[in-house]
Amino acid sequence: MKISIASMNKLSESFLISLSALIALFLTSTVLAQAEEDCENTLQCESSWVGMSDSERSVVFEFAEDYKAFIHRARTELTFVQEAITFAEANGFEELTVSTPMEAGAKIYEVNRDRTISLIVLGEEPLASGFHVIGAHIDSPRLELKGRPLFENSEFALFQTNYHGGIKFHQWTNLPLALLGHIDKKDGSRVSISIGLDPEDPVFMIPELSPHVDRGRNSQTLADFIGPEDLDPIVGHIPGEDDGDVVEQILKYLDEEYGVSRADLVSSELSLVPAGAPRDMGFDRGLIAAYGQDDRLASYAAMRAIAEVDSPQITTMAYLVDNEEVGNRNNTGAGSEYFADLLSRLLYAELGGDYREPLFRAVLRKTKFISIDVNPGINPMNPGAWETGNAPKLGYGVNLKLYGQGNTANSEFIAWTRQLLDSNDVPWQTSTYKVGSAGGGTIGGEFSSQNIEVIDFGVPVLSIHTPYAVSSKVDIYSLYQAARAFYSFRE
Protein backbone atom coordinates (compact mmCIF):
# COMPACT_ATOMS: atom_id res chain seq x y z
CA MET A 1 0.00 0.00 0.00
CA LYS A 2 1.42 3.34 -1.02
CA ILE A 3 0.72 6.59 0.84
CA SER A 4 1.36 9.77 -1.04
CA ILE A 5 3.31 12.66 0.42
CA ALA A 6 0.13 14.78 0.15
CA SER A 7 -1.79 12.26 2.24
CA MET A 8 1.00 12.19 4.81
CA ASN A 9 0.90 15.97 5.00
CA LYS A 10 -2.85 15.88 5.56
CA LEU A 11 -2.45 13.27 8.31
CA SER A 12 0.23 15.36 9.96
CA GLU A 13 -1.96 18.44 9.68
CA SER A 14 -4.93 16.60 11.25
CA PHE A 15 -2.72 15.31 14.05
CA LEU A 16 -1.42 18.79 14.76
CA ILE A 17 -4.94 20.21 14.78
CA SER A 18 -6.10 17.51 17.18
CA LEU A 19 -3.06 18.04 19.37
CA SER A 20 -3.67 21.79 19.38
CA ALA A 21 -7.31 21.23 20.36
CA LEU A 22 -6.26 18.97 23.24
CA ILE A 23 -3.70 21.50 24.42
CA ALA A 24 -6.27 24.29 24.20
CA LEU A 25 -8.79 22.20 26.15
CA PHE A 26 -6.16 21.42 28.79
CA LEU A 27 -5.15 25.06 29.10
CA THR A 28 -8.79 26.16 29.32
CA SER A 29 -9.51 23.60 32.01
CA THR A 30 -6.40 24.66 33.89
CA VAL A 31 -7.36 28.33 33.67
CA LEU A 32 -10.93 27.64 34.80
CA ALA A 33 -9.69 25.48 37.67
CA GLN A 34 -7.24 28.20 38.68
CA ALA A 35 -9.97 30.84 38.43
CA GLU A 36 -12.27 28.69 40.56
CA GLU A 37 -9.54 28.19 43.15
CA ASP A 38 -8.78 31.93 43.16
CA CYS A 39 -12.49 32.66 43.61
CA GLU A 40 -12.74 30.32 46.59
CA ASN A 41 -9.68 31.78 48.28
CA THR A 42 -9.72 35.44 47.27
CA LEU A 43 -13.48 35.95 46.71
CA GLN A 44 -12.61 37.72 43.44
CA CYS A 45 -15.32 35.86 41.54
CA GLU A 46 -17.02 36.33 38.20
CA SER A 47 -20.72 36.25 37.44
CA SER A 48 -22.14 32.74 37.42
CA TRP A 49 -23.17 33.29 33.81
CA VAL A 50 -19.52 33.56 32.68
CA GLY A 51 -18.16 30.32 31.24
CA MET A 52 -21.53 28.59 31.30
CA SER A 53 -22.07 26.11 28.46
CA ASP A 54 -25.19 26.11 26.30
CA SER A 55 -26.43 22.92 27.94
CA GLU A 56 -25.92 24.36 31.44
CA ARG A 57 -27.79 27.51 30.47
CA SER A 58 -30.65 25.42 29.12
CA VAL A 59 -30.95 23.64 32.48
CA VAL A 60 -31.05 26.98 34.31
CA PHE A 61 -33.69 28.38 31.97
CA GLU A 62 -35.82 25.23 32.19
CA PHE A 63 -35.70 25.39 35.99
CA ALA A 64 -36.79 29.03 35.79
CA GLU A 65 -39.82 28.13 33.69
CA ASP A 66 -40.97 25.63 36.33
CA TYR A 67 -40.43 28.26 39.02
CA LYS A 68 -42.44 30.92 37.17
CA ALA A 69 -45.33 28.52 36.59
CA PHE A 70 -45.44 27.62 40.29
CA ILE A 71 -45.33 31.12 41.77
CA HIS A 72 -47.94 32.30 39.26
CA ARG A 73 -50.41 30.01 41.03
CA ALA A 74 -48.96 30.30 44.54
CA ARG A 75 -49.65 33.97 45.35
CA THR A 76 -50.40 33.67 49.08
CA GLU A 77 -49.48 31.28 51.87
CA LEU A 78 -52.84 29.55 51.40
CA THR A 79 -52.36 28.97 47.68
CA PHE A 80 -48.69 28.08 48.16
CA VAL A 81 -49.64 25.28 50.55
CA GLN A 82 -52.31 24.02 48.14
CA GLU A 83 -49.81 23.90 45.27
CA ALA A 84 -47.11 22.40 47.50
CA ILE A 85 -49.40 19.53 48.51
CA THR A 86 -50.04 18.76 44.85
CA PHE A 87 -46.29 18.88 44.15
CA ALA A 88 -45.41 16.76 47.17
CA GLU A 89 -47.90 14.01 46.40
CA ALA A 90 -46.80 13.93 42.76
CA ASN A 91 -43.24 13.34 44.02
CA GLY A 92 -44.03 10.46 46.36
CA PHE A 93 -44.68 12.26 49.65
CA GLU A 94 -47.49 10.99 51.87
CA GLU A 95 -49.26 12.85 54.66
CA LEU A 96 -47.94 12.16 58.14
CA THR A 97 -50.27 10.09 60.35
CA VAL A 98 -49.95 8.38 63.73
CA SER A 99 -49.29 5.12 61.90
CA THR A 100 -46.62 6.42 59.50
CA PRO A 101 -43.60 4.05 59.76
CA MET A 102 -40.33 5.74 60.66
CA GLU A 103 -38.34 4.05 57.88
CA ALA A 104 -35.28 5.42 56.10
CA GLY A 105 -36.19 7.02 52.80
CA ALA A 106 -39.85 7.59 53.71
CA LYS A 107 -41.18 10.85 52.26
CA ILE A 108 -43.83 12.54 54.39
CA TYR A 109 -45.45 15.94 54.72
CA GLU A 110 -47.62 17.72 57.26
CA VAL A 111 -49.72 20.88 56.98
CA ASN A 112 -50.34 23.24 59.88
CA ARG A 113 -53.73 24.97 59.60
CA ASP A 114 -53.52 25.31 55.80
CA ARG A 115 -50.81 27.98 56.11
CA THR A 116 -47.54 26.12 56.82
CA ILE A 117 -46.18 22.96 55.24
CA SER A 118 -43.28 20.67 56.17
CA LEU A 119 -41.76 18.18 53.71
CA ILE A 120 -39.59 15.49 55.32
CA VAL A 121 -37.37 12.67 54.05
CA LEU A 122 -36.34 10.27 56.81
CA GLY A 123 -32.62 9.56 56.98
CA GLU A 124 -30.56 6.43 57.44
CA GLU A 125 -29.41 7.51 60.89
CA PRO A 126 -31.84 7.64 63.81
CA LEU A 127 -33.54 10.93 64.58
CA ALA A 128 -31.32 11.24 67.63
CA SER A 129 -28.59 12.34 65.19
CA GLY A 130 -30.53 15.54 64.51
CA PHE A 131 -32.12 17.05 61.41
CA HIS A 132 -30.99 19.03 58.40
CA VAL A 133 -33.67 21.71 58.02
CA ILE A 134 -34.14 24.48 55.47
CA GLY A 135 -36.64 27.07 56.61
CA ALA A 136 -38.24 29.80 54.52
CA HIS A 137 -41.44 31.79 54.62
CA ILE A 138 -44.32 31.69 52.15
CA ASP A 139 -46.14 34.93 52.97
CA SER A 140 -45.36 38.13 51.07
CA PRO A 141 -46.29 41.80 51.43
CA ARG A 142 -49.85 42.38 50.25
CA LEU A 143 -53.14 44.11 51.02
CA GLU A 144 -55.78 42.42 53.17
CA LEU A 145 -59.45 43.23 53.61
CA LYS A 146 -60.58 44.76 56.87
CA GLY A 147 -63.26 42.93 58.84
CA ARG A 148 -66.02 45.12 57.40
CA PRO A 149 -64.46 46.15 54.10
CA LEU A 150 -67.31 47.14 51.79
CA PHE A 151 -68.28 50.83 51.53
CA GLU A 152 -69.37 53.44 48.98
CA ASN A 153 -67.68 56.67 47.97
CA SER A 154 -68.56 58.95 45.04
CA GLU A 155 -70.92 56.24 43.72
CA PHE A 156 -68.19 53.62 43.60
CA ALA A 157 -68.11 50.47 45.72
CA LEU A 158 -64.71 50.02 47.37
CA PHE A 159 -62.91 47.73 49.79
CA GLN A 160 -61.13 49.08 52.86
CA THR A 161 -57.79 47.36 53.35
CA ASN A 162 -54.91 46.86 55.74
CA TYR A 163 -51.38 45.93 54.69
CA HIS A 164 -49.34 42.81 55.49
CA GLY A 165 -45.59 43.40 55.68
CA GLY A 166 -43.56 46.47 54.86
CA ILE A 167 -44.63 48.22 51.67
CA LYS A 168 -44.28 51.59 49.97
CA PHE A 169 -47.92 52.61 49.71
CA HIS A 170 -47.68 54.54 46.43
CA GLN A 171 -46.41 51.44 44.59
CA TRP A 172 -49.78 49.70 45.03
CA THR A 173 -51.85 52.24 43.09
CA ASN A 174 -52.84 51.99 39.42
CA LEU A 175 -52.01 48.30 39.52
CA PRO A 176 -54.29 45.41 38.46
CA LEU A 177 -55.02 43.39 41.60
CA ALA A 178 -56.40 39.89 42.11
CA LEU A 179 -58.55 38.86 45.09
CA LEU A 180 -57.54 35.52 46.63
CA GLY A 181 -58.46 33.61 49.77
CA HIS A 182 -61.49 32.13 51.41
CA ILE A 183 -64.57 32.93 53.49
CA ASP A 184 -65.49 30.70 56.43
CA LYS A 185 -69.19 30.60 57.29
CA LYS A 186 -70.86 29.90 60.63
CA ASP A 187 -72.15 26.53 59.43
CA GLY A 188 -68.54 25.31 59.01
CA SER A 189 -68.46 25.56 55.23
CA ARG A 190 -65.71 27.40 53.37
CA VAL A 191 -65.98 29.39 50.15
CA SER A 192 -62.79 29.73 48.10
CA ILE A 193 -62.22 32.95 46.16
CA SER A 194 -59.87 33.50 43.23
CA ILE A 195 -60.63 36.46 40.97
CA GLY A 196 -58.12 38.17 38.72
CA LEU A 197 -55.46 35.63 37.77
CA ASP A 198 -57.33 34.24 34.78
CA PRO A 199 -57.11 36.63 31.79
CA GLU A 200 -60.91 36.44 31.50
CA ASP A 201 -61.44 37.53 35.12
CA PRO A 202 -62.09 41.11 36.20
CA VAL A 203 -59.40 42.83 38.25
CA PHE A 204 -59.45 45.47 40.97
CA MET A 205 -57.43 48.69 41.22
CA ILE A 206 -56.64 51.62 43.49
CA PRO A 207 -56.97 54.64 41.17
CA GLU A 208 -54.50 57.50 41.48
CA LEU A 209 -55.11 61.11 40.45
CA SER A 210 -54.09 62.11 36.95
CA PRO A 211 -51.47 64.87 36.53
CA HIS A 212 -54.15 67.20 35.15
CA VAL A 213 -55.77 67.63 38.56
CA ASP A 214 -52.87 66.83 40.85
CA ARG A 215 -50.43 69.72 40.47
CA GLY A 216 -51.08 71.02 43.95
CA ARG A 217 -49.76 67.84 45.56
CA ASN A 218 -46.49 67.52 43.66
CA SER A 219 -44.51 69.13 46.48
CA GLN A 220 -45.74 66.65 49.11
CA THR A 221 -43.62 63.82 50.43
CA LEU A 222 -44.57 60.28 49.44
CA ALA A 223 -45.70 59.61 53.01
CA ASP A 224 -48.24 62.44 52.72
CA PHE A 225 -49.08 61.72 49.10
CA ILE A 226 -50.44 58.20 49.64
CA GLY A 227 -51.09 56.85 53.12
CA PRO A 228 -52.19 53.42 54.39
CA GLU A 229 -55.83 54.50 54.60
CA ASP A 230 -55.78 55.52 50.93
CA LEU A 231 -55.36 51.96 49.62
CA ASP A 232 -59.01 51.31 48.76
CA PRO A 233 -59.57 49.45 45.47
CA ILE A 234 -62.67 49.93 43.38
CA VAL A 235 -64.79 46.76 43.30
CA GLY A 236 -67.99 47.95 41.61
CA HIS A 237 -69.53 50.77 39.61
CA ILE A 238 -72.99 49.88 38.22
CA PRO A 239 -75.85 51.18 40.40
CA GLY A 240 -79.09 49.34 40.98
CA GLU A 241 -82.17 50.13 38.92
CA ASP A 242 -84.30 50.95 41.98
CA ASP A 243 -82.23 52.63 44.68
CA GLY A 244 -78.97 53.27 42.79
CA ASP A 245 -76.88 51.82 45.64
CA VAL A 246 -73.69 50.29 44.20
CA VAL A 247 -72.77 48.51 47.46
CA GLU A 248 -76.13 46.74 47.52
CA GLN A 249 -75.45 45.47 44.02
CA ILE A 250 -72.09 44.05 45.14
CA LEU A 251 -73.73 42.37 48.15
CA LYS A 252 -76.36 40.92 45.84
CA TYR A 253 -73.62 39.56 43.55
CA LEU A 254 -71.74 37.99 46.48
CA ASP A 255 -74.92 36.31 47.68
CA GLU A 256 -75.88 34.96 44.25
CA GLU A 257 -72.36 33.90 43.19
CA TYR A 258 -70.91 32.65 46.49
CA GLY A 259 -73.78 32.48 48.97
CA VAL A 260 -72.10 34.86 51.41
CA SER A 261 -73.40 37.91 53.28
CA ARG A 262 -71.79 41.09 54.56
CA ALA A 263 -71.38 39.45 57.98
CA ASP A 264 -69.58 36.46 56.43
CA LEU A 265 -66.76 38.79 55.38
CA VAL A 266 -65.85 39.14 59.06
CA SER A 267 -64.60 35.53 59.07
CA SER A 268 -62.68 35.71 55.80
CA GLU A 269 -59.03 35.75 54.77
CA LEU A 270 -59.01 37.68 51.53
CA SER A 271 -55.87 39.21 50.05
CA LEU A 272 -55.29 41.60 47.18
CA VAL A 273 -52.12 40.76 45.22
CA PRO A 274 -50.73 41.86 41.84
CA ALA A 275 -52.61 40.09 39.06
CA GLY A 276 -49.83 40.01 36.48
CA ALA A 277 -48.00 36.81 35.59
CA PRO A 278 -44.25 36.33 36.16
CA ARG A 279 -42.28 37.49 33.14
CA ASP A 280 -38.75 37.23 31.78
CA MET A 281 -36.94 40.54 31.92
CA GLY A 282 -34.30 41.93 29.57
CA PHE A 283 -33.27 41.11 26.02
CA ASP A 284 -31.24 38.13 27.26
CA ARG A 285 -34.09 36.81 29.48
CA GLY A 286 -31.67 36.34 32.36
CA LEU A 287 -33.96 37.97 34.94
CA ILE A 288 -37.44 37.24 36.29
CA ALA A 289 -39.91 39.94 37.29
CA ALA A 290 -42.63 38.53 39.52
CA TYR A 291 -44.70 39.20 42.60
CA GLY A 292 -43.94 37.33 45.82
CA GLN A 293 -40.34 36.28 45.23
CA ASP A 294 -39.79 37.28 48.86
CA ASP A 295 -39.75 34.55 49.96
CA ARG A 296 -41.48 32.01 47.77
CA LEU A 297 -38.30 31.93 45.69
CA ALA A 298 -36.47 30.28 48.59
CA SER A 299 -39.43 28.07 49.49
CA TYR A 300 -39.68 26.75 45.94
CA ALA A 301 -35.94 26.01 45.76
CA ALA A 302 -36.07 24.10 49.06
CA MET A 303 -39.15 22.17 47.97
CA ARG A 304 -37.64 21.20 44.63
CA ALA A 305 -34.39 20.12 46.28
CA ILE A 306 -35.92 17.90 48.95
CA ALA A 307 -38.10 16.14 46.37
CA GLU A 308 -34.90 14.87 44.71
CA VAL A 309 -33.39 13.38 47.89
CA ASP A 310 -34.12 9.66 48.16
CA SER A 311 -31.87 8.30 50.90
CA PRO A 312 -30.24 11.01 53.02
CA GLN A 313 -27.88 10.19 55.86
CA ILE A 314 -29.60 12.68 58.19
CA THR A 315 -33.36 13.26 58.20
CA THR A 316 -34.06 16.33 56.06
CA MET A 317 -36.89 18.84 56.18
CA ALA A 318 -38.21 21.80 54.22
CA TYR A 319 -40.07 23.91 56.77
CA LEU A 320 -42.14 26.51 54.89
CA VAL A 321 -43.89 28.86 57.25
CA ASP A 322 -46.32 31.78 57.41
CA ASN A 323 -46.27 35.33 58.83
CA GLU A 324 -42.56 36.21 58.64
CA GLU A 325 -43.44 39.58 57.12
CA VAL A 326 -45.32 40.57 60.28
CA GLY A 327 -42.88 39.25 62.89
CA ASN A 328 -43.32 35.44 62.83
CA ARG A 329 -46.58 35.73 64.76
CA ASN A 330 -49.55 33.49 65.36
CA ASN A 331 -49.68 29.70 65.53
CA THR A 332 -48.61 29.39 61.89
CA GLY A 333 -45.56 31.65 62.21
CA ALA A 334 -42.02 30.64 63.05
CA GLY A 335 -42.46 31.95 66.58
CA SER A 336 -45.01 29.26 67.45
CA GLU A 337 -44.30 25.97 69.21
CA TYR A 338 -45.43 24.00 66.16
CA PHE A 339 -41.91 23.23 64.88
CA ALA A 340 -40.75 21.80 68.21
CA ASP A 341 -44.04 19.93 68.49
CA LEU A 342 -43.51 18.32 65.07
CA LEU A 343 -39.95 17.22 65.82
CA SER A 344 -40.92 15.81 69.21
CA ARG A 345 -43.79 13.82 67.66
CA LEU A 346 -41.43 12.36 65.06
CA LEU A 347 -38.94 11.40 67.75
CA TYR A 348 -41.69 9.85 69.86
CA ALA A 349 -42.92 7.86 66.86
CA GLU A 350 -39.41 6.40 66.53
CA LEU A 351 -38.64 5.81 70.23
CA GLY A 352 -42.05 5.05 71.66
CA GLY A 353 -41.82 4.45 75.41
CA ASP A 354 -38.11 5.27 75.43
CA TYR A 355 -38.84 8.93 74.57
CA ARG A 356 -37.57 11.44 77.12
CA GLU A 357 -37.47 15.25 77.08
CA PRO A 358 -33.63 15.40 77.41
CA LEU A 359 -33.36 13.25 74.27
CA PHE A 360 -35.51 15.72 72.36
CA ARG A 361 -33.42 18.65 73.58
CA ALA A 362 -30.29 16.82 72.42
CA VAL A 363 -31.83 16.45 68.97
CA LEU A 364 -32.35 20.21 68.76
CA ARG A 365 -28.71 20.75 69.73
CA LYS A 366 -27.53 18.46 66.90
CA THR A 367 -29.80 19.97 64.24
CA LYS A 368 -28.42 22.18 61.47
CA PHE A 369 -30.83 24.80 60.16
CA ILE A 370 -30.45 27.00 57.07
CA SER A 371 -32.80 29.97 57.14
CA ILE A 372 -33.21 31.24 53.59
CA ASP A 373 -34.69 34.61 52.74
CA VAL A 374 -34.04 36.91 49.81
CA ASN A 375 -32.36 40.25 50.40
CA PRO A 376 -31.72 43.40 48.36
CA GLY A 377 -28.97 43.20 45.76
CA ILE A 378 -26.96 46.09 44.39
CA ASN A 379 -29.44 48.25 42.48
CA PRO A 380 -28.16 50.17 39.44
CA MET A 381 -30.54 53.03 40.30
CA ASN A 382 -28.84 53.54 43.66
CA PRO A 383 -25.72 51.41 44.17
CA GLY A 384 -24.68 53.66 47.04
CA ALA A 385 -27.28 52.04 49.29
CA TRP A 386 -24.63 49.36 49.86
CA GLU A 387 -20.99 49.31 50.80
CA THR A 388 -20.03 47.47 47.63
CA GLY A 389 -17.29 45.34 49.20
CA ASN A 390 -19.90 43.63 51.39
CA ALA A 391 -22.83 43.74 49.01
CA PRO A 392 -24.48 40.88 47.10
CA LYS A 393 -24.79 41.11 43.32
CA LEU A 394 -27.36 39.47 41.07
CA GLY A 395 -25.82 36.60 39.13
CA TYR A 396 -23.14 35.79 41.69
CA GLY A 397 -24.92 33.01 43.54
CA VAL A 398 -26.31 32.58 47.04
CA ASN A 399 -25.12 34.86 49.78
CA LEU A 400 -24.23 34.24 53.41
CA LYS A 401 -25.79 36.92 55.59
CA LEU A 402 -23.20 38.28 58.00
CA TYR A 403 -25.18 40.76 60.08
CA GLY A 404 -22.77 41.25 62.95
CA GLN A 405 -23.87 42.56 66.37
CA GLY A 406 -24.55 39.05 67.66
CA ASN A 407 -26.84 38.10 64.78
CA THR A 408 -24.34 36.15 62.65
CA ALA A 409 -23.95 32.38 62.69
CA ASN A 410 -21.02 30.93 64.63
CA SER A 411 -17.78 31.02 62.67
CA GLU A 412 -17.45 27.22 62.79
CA PHE A 413 -20.87 26.80 61.15
CA ILE A 414 -19.97 29.41 58.53
CA ALA A 415 -16.79 27.44 57.76
CA TRP A 416 -18.79 24.20 57.54
CA THR A 417 -21.18 25.91 55.12
CA ARG A 418 -18.34 27.27 52.98
CA GLN A 419 -16.94 23.76 52.66
CA LEU A 420 -20.37 22.41 51.72
CA LEU A 421 -20.83 25.01 48.98
CA ASP A 422 -17.29 24.86 47.60
CA SER A 423 -17.20 21.06 47.48
CA ASN A 424 -20.44 21.10 45.47
CA ASP A 425 -19.36 23.94 43.14
CA VAL A 426 -22.15 26.23 44.34
CA PRO A 427 -21.27 29.91 43.79
CA TRP A 428 -21.63 32.08 46.87
CA GLN A 429 -21.00 35.57 48.14
CA THR A 430 -21.55 37.50 51.38
CA SER A 431 -23.97 40.19 52.48
CA THR A 432 -23.63 42.76 55.25
CA TYR A 433 -25.88 45.83 55.38
CA LYS A 434 -24.50 49.33 55.81
CA VAL A 435 -24.08 49.84 59.53
CA GLY A 436 -26.92 51.79 61.08
CA SER A 437 -28.71 52.64 57.83
CA ALA A 438 -30.26 49.37 56.64
CA GLY A 439 -31.35 45.98 57.91
CA GLY A 440 -33.61 42.99 57.60
CA GLY A 441 -34.30 39.67 59.20
CA THR A 442 -35.43 36.11 58.59
CA ILE A 443 -37.06 33.33 60.57
CA GLY A 444 -33.62 32.19 61.74
CA GLY A 445 -33.65 33.85 65.14
CA GLU A 446 -36.73 31.90 66.21
CA PHE A 447 -34.80 28.63 65.82
CA SER A 448 -31.45 29.80 67.11
CA SER A 449 -33.23 30.54 70.40
CA GLN A 450 -34.13 26.83 70.57
CA ASN A 451 -30.41 25.92 70.74
CA ILE A 452 -30.32 24.95 67.04
CA GLU A 453 -27.29 25.80 64.87
CA VAL A 454 -28.64 28.32 62.37
CA ILE A 455 -27.17 30.20 59.41
CA ASP A 456 -28.91 32.74 57.20
CA PHE A 457 -28.73 32.38 53.45
CA GLY A 458 -30.04 34.80 50.88
CA VAL A 459 -30.43 35.40 47.20
CA PRO A 460 -30.00 38.98 45.97
CA VAL A 461 -33.18 40.44 44.49
CA LEU A 462 -34.10 43.92 43.23
CA SER A 463 -37.27 45.78 44.23
CA ILE A 464 -38.10 43.59 47.23
CA HIS A 465 -41.50 44.26 48.85
CA THR A 466 -42.77 45.92 45.67
CA PRO A 467 -45.49 44.43 43.44
CA TYR A 468 -42.79 43.08 41.10
CA ALA A 469 -39.40 41.99 42.39
CA VAL A 470 -36.51 41.03 40.09
CA SER A 471 -34.29 37.95 40.47
CA SER A 472 -31.58 36.33 38.39
CA LYS A 473 -32.39 32.89 37.01
CA VAL A 474 -28.90 31.62 37.75
CA ASP A 475 -29.18 32.63 41.43
CA ILE A 476 -32.43 30.73 41.83
CA TYR A 477 -30.79 27.66 40.37
CA SER A 478 -27.71 28.12 42.58
CA LEU A 479 -29.96 28.26 45.64
CA TYR A 480 -31.61 25.01 44.58
CA GLN A 481 -28.14 23.45 44.16
CA ALA A 482 -27.15 24.63 47.64
CA ALA A 483 -30.32 23.17 49.15
CA ARG A 484 -29.79 19.86 47.39
CA ALA A 485 -26.18 19.70 48.60
CA PHE A 486 -27.27 20.37 52.19
CA TYR A 487 -29.96 17.69 52.09
CA SER A 488 -27.57 15.17 50.49
CA PHE A 489 -24.66 15.82 52.85
CA ARG A 490 -22.79 12.73 54.08
CA GLU A 491 -19.97 12.52 56.58
From TrEMBL:
InterPro entries: Peptidase_M18, Peptidase_M18_dom2. GO terms for biological process: proteolysis. It comes from the Bacteria. Its EC number is 3.4.11.-. One of its GO terms (cellular component) is cytoplasm. Belongs to the peptidase M18 family. This is M18 family aminopeptidase. It is an enzyme of class 3 (hydrolase). Keywords: Aminopeptidase, Hydrolase, Metal-binding, Metalloprotease, Protease, Signal, Zinc. Gene3D superfamilies: Aminopeptidase i, Domain 2, Zn peptidases. Its cofactor is Zn(2+). GO terms for molecular function: aminopeptidase activity; metallopeptidase activity; zinc ion binding. SUPFAM superfamilies: Aminopeptidase/glucanase lid domain, Zn-dependent exopeptidases. It comes from SAR86 cluster bacterium. Residues 1-33 form the signal peptide.
